[in-house]
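Reminder to self: tokens first, then the designed residues, so the page reads top to bottom the way the pipeline ran.
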């Protein structure tokens, strides 16, 4: 059975009142998990509230009992891997072993420029990302002091205490679709791979490529969970869906088209989950059939708690 979780784009207006409501509602509604993006701001103005990710997850860890949670993803272009590993151990221990440590190389140029971080060209980002993964996995997994000498990061007999309460600490999640760089790193370091906005067919193809890479590294393909992040637009009926998709009238590709055609375009061309309960259940099954263990669904309207509850009662309860 595929698990269903929610992802919040925290840089898009998240503050404490909204986060507290979301955490409570998503836990009570029965979703498997709740994930946070990790950004200072959006790629384009205007700037909005952007509640700090690790602090917000600390609140979640201490105010929930059931659902898992994590970063999706924390960029090692501005997150120090030593401090992030230390925070992840603390969060996982606090929550009784419910955290996923989602990691990425960084991509958003605007936030790096605004706050003075060096993003660098793609090859540099990926080298830094690989070194950061080495540092984090060694610090999480070793009960003995570890040393590491890299271009970007160094350890000299380092050990993080207290140690993780579950062996190896929180599982590493690596997000992305890249065949040349991301999937090979997932095959080496990850316990979970998170695909981003792929169709079921594309997901299956990448998943099979990951299987081969895992075998090359002497790992069983079953060692890595497969998850997919997708955008969700849901309505209990077509009238409600019409209101939730009102932004389409300002989108040249969609303006003037019948609602049914818009739904088809968004699902088949943009790989969104979109529709009424029956339609979305069928779309979820498409991903379940190709081996997705979990769908992580972007929920953009942070104030629409009623919509989340309606989705849970009509779709989540049927999965």
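Designed residues (319 positions):
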């Amino acid at each position: 059975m595929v698990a269903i979780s929610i992802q919040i784009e925290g840089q898009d207006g998240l503050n404490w009142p909204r986060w507290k409501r979301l955490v409570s509602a998503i836990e009570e509604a029965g979703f498997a998990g709740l994930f946070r993006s990790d950004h200072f701001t959006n790629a384009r103005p205007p700037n909005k509230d952007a509640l700090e990710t690790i602090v917000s997850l600390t609140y979640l860890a201490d105010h929930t009992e059931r659902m898992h949670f994590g970063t999706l993803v924390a960029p090692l272009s501005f997150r120090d891997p030593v401090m992030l590993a230390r925070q992840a151990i603390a969060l996982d221990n606090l929550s009784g072993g419910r955290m996923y440590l989602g990691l990425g190389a960084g991509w958003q140029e605007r936030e790096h420029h605004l706050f003075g971080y060096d993003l660098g060209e793609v090859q540099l980002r990926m080298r830094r990302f690989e070194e950061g993964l080495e540092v984090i996995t060694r610090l999480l997994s070793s009960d003995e002091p570890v040393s590491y000498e890299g271009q970007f990061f160094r350890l000299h007999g380092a050990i993080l205490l207290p140690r993780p309460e579950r062996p190896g600490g929180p599982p590493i999640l690596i997000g992305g679709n890249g065949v040349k760089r991301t999937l090979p790193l997932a095959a080496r370091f990850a316990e979970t791979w998170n695909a981003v906005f792929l169709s079921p067919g594309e997901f299956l193809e990448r998943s099979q490529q990951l299987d081969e890479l895992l075998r090359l590294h002497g790992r069983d393909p079953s060692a890595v969970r497969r998850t997919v992040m997708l955008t969700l637009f849901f309505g209990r009926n077509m009238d409600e869906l019409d209101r939730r998709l009102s932004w389409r009238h300002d989108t040249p590709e969609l303006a003037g088209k019948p609602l049914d055609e818009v739904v088809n375009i968004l699902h088949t061309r943009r790989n969104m989950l979109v529709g009424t309960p029956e339609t979305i259940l069928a779309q979820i099954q498409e991903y379940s059939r190709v081996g997705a263990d979990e769908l992580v669904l972007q929920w953009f309207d942070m104030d629409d708690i009623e919509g989340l509850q309606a989705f849970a009662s009509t779709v989540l309860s049927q999965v």
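The chain has one domain: 3-82+175-318.
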